[in-house]
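Quick entry between incubations.
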Amino acid sequence: MMRSLSITPAKCTGCLQCEMACSYENEGVFNPAKSRIKVFVFEHEGRNVPYTCTQCADAWCKNACPTEAIQINAATGAKVINEGLCVGCKVCTIACPFGTVNYNHATGKVIKCDLCGGDPACAKACPTQAITYIDADWTGYDKMRGWAARTDTQSAAQV
Amino acid sequence: MRYAIIGAGPSGVVAAETLRARDAQAEIVIVGGEAEPAYSRMAIPYLLAGQIDETGTYLRHTPDHFDKLGIRMVQEQVSTVDTDARRLLLSNGSSLDFDRLLIASGSHPVKPPVAGLDQPAIHHCWTLADARHIAKYASPDSRVVLMGAGFIGSIIMEALVRRKVRLTLVEKADRMVPRMMDQTAGNLIKQWCIGQGVDVRTSTQVDAIDTDPSGSARYLLRTTPSGVIPADLVVVATGVRPTIGFLQGSAIETRLGVLVDDHLQTSVEGIYAAGDVCEGFDWNTGARAIHAIQPVAAETGRLAALNMSGCRTVYTGSLGMNVLDSIGLISTSFGQWQGIDGGDQTQLLDESGYRYIKLQFEEDRLIGAITLGTTEHVGVIRGLIQSRTQLGAWRQRLIRDPSRVMEAYLANAQ
Amino acid sequence: MGWHKKVLRVNLTDGSCNAEPLNMQWAAEYLGQRGLATKYLLEEIDPKVDPLSPENKLIIATGPLTGTMASTGGRFSVITKGALTGAIACSNSGGYFGAELKFAGWDMIIFEGRALSPVYLLIKDDSVELLPADDLWGKSVWETDEILHRRHQDPQLRVAAIGQSGEQGVLFACVVNDLHRAAGRSGVGTVMGSKNLKAVAVRGTQGVKVKDPARFMRVVAEKKQILAENAVTGQGLPTYGTQVLMNVINEVGALPTNNAIDVQFNGASKISGEAMHEVRASDGKSNLVANKACFGCTIACGRISKMDQTHYTVVNRPEYWGASGGLEYEAAWALGAATGVDDLEALTFANFICNEQAFDPITFGSTLGAAMELYEMGLISDAETGGTALKFGSAEALTKMAELVGKGEGFGKVLGLGSKRLCEKYGHPELSMSVKGQEFPAYDPRGIQGMGLTYATSNRGACHLRSYTVASEILGIPEKTDPLATEGKAGLVKAFQDATAAVDSTGLCLFTTFAWSLDDFQPQVDAACDGEWSLERLSEVGERIWNMERQFNLAAGFTGKDDTLPKRLLKDAAKTGPAQGRVNGLDQMLPEYYQLRGWDNAGVPTRETLSKLGL
Ligand SMILES: Cc1cc2nc3c(=O)[nH]c(=O)nc-3n(C[C@H](O)[C@H](O)[C@H](O)COP(=O)(O)OP(=O)(O)OC[C@H]3O[C@@H](n4cnc5c(N)ncnc54)[C@H](O)[C@@H]3O)c2cc1C
Ligand code: SF4
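Done. Structure below.
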């Protein structure tokens, strides 16, 4: 069974442990600015919403990439950046309709969630189980995909 | 089933792979007119900048990728499409029969009406072959004039700057990237580039190119109103047109590009078009439009292939969008960034910080945007536009602070 | 490691911003944040200086663990000579600002001088600019935050600012960051205002490194587990916040009520953490919306509240309808019990105003309580208050005065002096519930004896956060002591003071100490910071800091005579509850305390003590 990240915003307290864990895992430093997962804070509602790549079945970012630098990890299903092939053109950053591929000025390449090879650091670090890594069937993916379906051009192609 | 695809660019390649995924048995041939492995034009700037070698521009990197998929690659120009006989005539005299055809021949640069363009160190920057020529002349400290500060020109500019040439950018319009950026953003980009050492001349026209009799430079460009500009290399990036010459006389209807319907089919049954060459629809307005950009090339390639292989899928039009890195200043534009009559707009401008964001609305939906100086979560602008999300209360919040697009999306999607 | 080893020095007088290396010898002796910045202040200013003069300096400092994955690693402090007290001031805050400053590559910022006209500091990693803030002057913290986010088009920008109270010289103004986290006490915001510094906005993308990352990750994970499994940090605080204490402290008869005339409050349950969970009849919602963490915090004790939109304070004022920082225990006590007000919504509103205009709810509530007593004695007239009857229990008085103090207008200007100056003005200095000019908070020393010594000896004026003996005397952490006894409290206070000074210098939050002792901090500090950090060294750092702060105060003109309590606590016995009939036995604790500290009878550290600590 393929697993995926499941996010329950109601449980998130906004501590950003996930962002630190992610940046530490991927960059070797505590640096939320380089985190692949981000917590968005809705001050006036008192809500915190962690958000990262949903690893879409048919990935916009991957399809748009001109150099085949976004590849699928067969074990996890994650869409993974191959830094050697990425030229830093940033087309994926505008192609992903969820805004979850970001450009890293320091390296001149893009960064996105790669599920840490199947053991996501964010989920391990979350103190409230707002982020868990579970069997794909159980996640809010359908909701996500439902939304994605409204992003017409490609979703049409997913049927 | 015999599928033929004209064009080995991203659109043709994605289409071939999609066809193969849908049909293990079919015969699939890509006819590409260049003597190169399938490559990506938009990687050329990075090749010129020395960030990658030629293999880095290839669309696929596994050496026998196409063989393994059973996709036959033919390196030959198509000279004629015989729609009745369902046959392609190739420039080497051979021919190729098909049941279904995809035209993905892309676009090609247009030559401006300037005397003296046909000289050795004057080049478009469109193909790998062009890139090799330019690389030969664009040595450090050489004087290079880049004609055209459109989207493609501006991308090439970055590559030339990285090659440490002395660069002059000449643009006929009153600002840089006029078709992607408004006056404010175009001017800011210009200011920025000047600050980075590029001599940017907007509202300037090249009238003719002469050889320099004194020999101190290779060429002298006569310009209005900037006078004479010396150059060792001239790069011409003054626009592109769909590549449809080989369709002349065929039954396939064309205008500026190949006209397609809402399934990417041309006027001839079983013949489709995708990518730069196809004249489809603007996603926002539904009007005829050509969006000659990489993501659209890939997406229409996929969609066309699905339709060709029997999976009827509606093509709802293409969204224009670009991301541009002008020597470190990153800008994007999406959809109807110019706005529409009766629609609201909002913007924030921080001139000294080189930051700008402008959003356009139709009722409570986002329909277009320009950003400058930010790279975080910009894709969500596309998502908001293409999902036609009704923003509700977030419309007013975005009007107050347009930088909150990610929150606006999350608030409405979750 | 842990530290960036970089200090930003901003001279507001000449507008210069310069990077300089962190004094690593001092870092080795004082760790960071509270200790290290106090060392800088002591070395750089004359302790006798007028706190509101350009010669005073204001330091915003992080700790070596700020911005790391250690739980609660988001703290920073504002260190200066306090406007309210004239003593050393060090106010600690959470939120996201401190970590962001660290991510931008800075351990601390030292502000000196005074700007000619209002300015704000914009930090984006190494790029640092002082920008004009004329258009921000007169704006609240909330408005300032919004304007700066828009101006710099960056939702991730973190802003610390003063409100109108700080501009207007309200002596207990704070610095509020991330809308509702505050460096709250002693008037650090007033000092910031006196420097014409409106705000600091920071965005950092450089990150923080630690000495031994693998060990650090292992240790912090272990320590987080301890927090999660502890009843207070794992359950009580996330569910009720510090407000878990309201009913508890009331029951033990240690809830100072109506300017400490009483030690129990009839309305306590109505303003308690439990009450914040209750569904309101008016709108079917509860006051509390959610609990909220500061950066890196796995406890998440923060309260996020929404007002009842029909409450008189906010009818037709939608700007107060959104969620914002709700009542913490000290604020609920000060705005409620100290003034006798039991209207939870009124308290929440006053608390919002405290955040919006950045002033300290503890000093404000206590000062208002004193003013109410003076009013009821007939010493303050309606003419002075602008027609508001300052009666104990009046929610209208509370909310009206909160708004006036926030703007520094009308009678708010008088309340803005703090209770000491206010009571002196009306001829009754004994009615100020303060020590060294600062009002004590929510624990009555008649019912919790150790807190009497805590308040009397606190270096920044009365404060619970300098040695929270409540933990031991009421909650039994680390072991239960009798709250009504004075024996052993001197040792307890000293131990807590030293440990707290060390904890406050790490970058972590004091609230972890409900579950952690110094042994739990030690391996985290040691894995993060250059050098070897043993438990002994950490304790010694704490004691060194305490004595250094004492030296600052002595040099500023304080003496042992100032180590005392308001007469009411020493003479008027508690009227009800378990402590009925008791006063605080400070005289039984103080001499022993001096002795344990190695101070002479006048409260001055002996030469031996100083040299032992390398001072
Ligand atoms: C320098 C440069 C930078 C760019 N940067 C960007 C960018 O940053 N972002 C972006 O979105 N887009 C960018 N583009 C545009 C992008 O490359 C094109 O939109 C994309 O390549 C279109 O793909 P396509 O498959 O439709 O056509 P093409 O890539 O043009 O491929 C067309 C193929 O058809 C072949 N062909 C043409 N005629 C015939 C014929 N008669 N017979 C046989 N074969 C034929 C060609 O040889 C070629 O193989 C850039 C382009 C260039 C040149
Ligand atoms: S980055 Fe975006 S487009 Fe790519 S897989 Fe993730 S959500 Fe999909």
